Amino acid sequence: MARYSSYGSLDDKVGEDGDQFFVGFNNRLRPDQLEPGMLAKSENGRMATNGEWQVRPGIDQFASPVVVGDQALTTPFTLPTAGQIGDGVTAILDDDAVQLLYGSCPFSDPNNAAEDTNQFIILAANSKAFAYSTNGGSSREIGYPASLFLNESVNLLQTFNKVFIFRNDKVTLENRIRWFDISSAVLSSNVMTITTATDHDFIVNDKININGLIKPPVVGAVDANDVGYTVTGITSNTLTFALTGADATYSFNPDGAYVGSDFTKVASGSYSQPVPIDCDPVNVVDGVCTCTADAAQVAQLSVGDTITVSVPDTTTFSEGDKFQIQSIPTTTTFTFLCSVADKSSKAMLVTLPISESGGYIHMPAAEFGHYHQRRLVLPYRYQPAASADTYTYRNIKDEIIFSYILDSDTYDPIKHQMRLNAGRADRVMGFHSFTEDNLIVFNRNSIHLVEGVEEIATSKRTLLTDEIGTVARKSIQQVGNEIIFLSDNGVYGVGFIEGYQLRGIELPLSQSIQGTIDRINKSFVDKACSAYFNNRYYLAVPLDNSQVNNAIIVYNFLNKQWESLDTVNDDSFQINDMFVAGEKSARGVYTTNDLGAINRLDAREDGYDRIVTQVGGSPVSIQVPGQVQTRQYTLGTLDRKKWKSFEMHVESSDTRTSDFKIRAELENLDRNFQVSDLATLNGGSALATGEDISIRGRLGNPRAYGVQYELYDISGRPKFRALKTDGIESFRTIEKAE
What we know:
It is built from 3 helices and 62 strands. By secondary structure, the chain is an all-beta fold. Strand 31 and strand 32 form a beta hairpin. The two termini are 29 Å apart.
């Protein structure tokens, strides 16, 4: 519009207002109270370091592995009645066929040194588990103990080179997950001999699964593709197990074949103090000591256990020497590494650690676990009972217990437990480790610091605050010098000050988006989960009446502002777990849900979310529903104005053309109306890929105190760079504006 070098006394001077950059959104303050650069609404957007607002990258469907068979029966369902097409069809509910997902975690395979192929995501379904490589490569099935099915949410954790499945009041499952390619498989005299392509590390009595073998056309031969086999013998690259059937050599499918480890139950029932192990003979060859002992004594050992020489052969070892078990090749032998000369036909007595208090117990049943300073720390609510797989509720919710160092099975309930906020209305919700052997314990209504867990008996316990706690364990993340978590009043933080001391942050980090925080469904807020990646804190929450996490709130640490409220334009999408996984180009934020899907956030440059919407369904592509609303522009006065025009700078992405509609929202007088759309202002065409433009439009001189602009029905991933609007003060009477 025209500009003038001077104005007369009766002229109305044109004023301008606008933003040249965008850093975050704020829905706690009124739109006319926001500072320049702040938006009133940012849905499914990202604000990069150059101050542009852009529709977020799409969510990608990484895998959907948990349905076996052609179809999956979901509830509710209807069977045809008499006289209808399909009359006589029978619905079969098969635990093996229809998979539901109950938990997940990232997994790094310690047996694979290649960084781009050793990263997996473990999914715990109802009848088996799955492992999917994050580089889009191999996938594996992992069995459970016989007749065990999951039917409720579980929590998974990798530590001590194992993956644990915590099942609340039920026995925990564990698995030192590994796979080895098979080069041959021969069945002879009801014994299957598997030869692996490389040396394996299975031991006798391990539970394994076999996958990818093709049953030979021999009468009586049985299929070896199954789970739950027990290893009966091993060499460096072979293993054997019982398999009844005719003698035969198995072939392979085109995708190859592998032998893998199954989940087993952790030890439970009464804990027996370890008995001394009488080793005879003891042979040392090239720094490897092989000990032979009674099978019942060797059965006490696990790879990684520490043994102590109590009665030595004076020519070989000394009393008090400690060694770590390296392997258990057979039921009567075990090995460890040493630095003595070769010996043969020696003898000695070794022992496992003995309790110094009232006796050890096996791992208590727990809802979740946490690794800290070579120990596994658990909420201590369920005590192992005398019978296997049974636990007794202790009527205590604010007590924790630590395992023995590098031993997930051994716990001292006298020396290694501690109670926090004893006798108060509180319960343990989660843990977080940080520098110098410090552990933060998050309770529901308080936060505690435990210092010096290396020696639990002398550890120091400090109450940080009893004013707030966390409502969701999986919301806890450490970012720089702050530990962030979701509380009753929003997202709070605990920060470091000098000397790595801790202090609470007085105001919630989420104060600027209180309007969004108020929408969180408090009845299901405990399901919230989070991840920190690429300088962003992603927090998945259940909004409004949702009982599942149906939205993600994103905080940008570079901008120091909340960046977006992310949703998917389909009510079936949900998030059960969220974590960072993968390496190199595959590293990112992954989510899982009980539809059986693994999704990766911010992964598609085309602006489409590619997701599954039902169990067993095929992925569908849905446009990301981007929407952005500016602050309210008022020209800095309370007077009514005549709003004349606007100018907007936008740029199309390099992958798609762009278009959107523009709506204006006026206040006093209140009115909303569509102004135009990008294509119309661009000569009738969508903005071409990679092109930028300055578009101008007129508002028609509506009278109002302030105006906001909203971009909606967005297609593509346009970059919204800047906006300017102008108006003239038009109401200068002392009469009331109505």
